[in-house]
Write a structure and sequence with these properties.
Blueprint: H1 11-20, E1 53-58, E2 62-70, H2 75-85, E3 91-108, E4 113-135, E5 138-148, E6 154-175, E7 181-184, E8 189-192
Antiparallel strand pairs: 1-2, 2-6, 3-4, 3-6, 4-5, 5-6, 7-8
Length: about 190
């Protein structure tokens, strides 16, 4: 069942929480051919309806952005569109919010592929953590989430897609030095290659 969530907003508290949130960087990413259900990651242009509103919090070689998504926007497509528009080459992302639907995944090493799990209905986005690197000269996010369900249980995994309802706020910290991924034939995934 989908229902609206009334949220009180505390911008100062949320910003402080997001800015100090811990980063969980995963060591394995997905093959971009299995990333999107309908289109490749980043296939839409910079005028993407999923593009979040952004505020630059810190500037320099290391930049930090507050990214705010609203109802109906898709998180992963918005992240990729933002990275393309700003020509980002490396970073980390963390955040919280609320979602109406999500697709998460579990990597099955024997089959070298992800099993997708559709999480329908309203969820609290308890935690979103991931990294940004370049794969074949395009921005590539690897993101994991923990989703809070109505009954207090938690589901999680690799994030393929998520529709925002009513809002999601992420902190994206970016770096000037590129980080690259390279396809690892042993697991058929583009892994970070420092």
């Amino acid at each position: 069942m989908k229902e609206a969530i009334a949220m009180s907003s505390h911008p100062t508290t949320r910003r402080r929480l997001l800015a100090t949130a811990a980063l969980t960087v995963a060591s394995c990413a997905i093959d971009p051919r299995t990333f999107a259900a309908d289109e490749p990651a980043g296939a839409r242009g910079a005028n993407n309806a999923d593009m979040p509103r952004a505020e630059l919090l810190t500037d320099g070689d290391v930049k930090t952005y507050l990214l705010v998504f609203h109802t109906g926007q898709e998180v992963m497509k918005g992240l990729v569109a933002f990275a393309r528009e700003h020509k980002l080459v490396a970073g980390r992302v963390t955040g919280i919010g609320a979602l109406s639907d999500a697709v998460v995944g579990y990597f099955e090493p024997e089959q070298k592929t992800y099993v997708r799990i559709q999480e329908e209905g309203q969820h609290e986005l308890l935690s979103l953590n991931g990294n940004l690197a370049l794969y074949q000269d395009s921005p590539f996010y690897h993101v994991h989430v923990a989703l809070g369900l109505r009954d207090g249980t938690v589901r999680g995994g690799h994030l393929f897609s998520a529709i925002v309802r009513p809002t999601t706020a992420l902190v994206l910290t970016t770096y000037a030095k590129p980080v690259h991924r390279q396809l690892d034939p042993a697991c058929n995934l583009p892994l970070i290659n420092p």
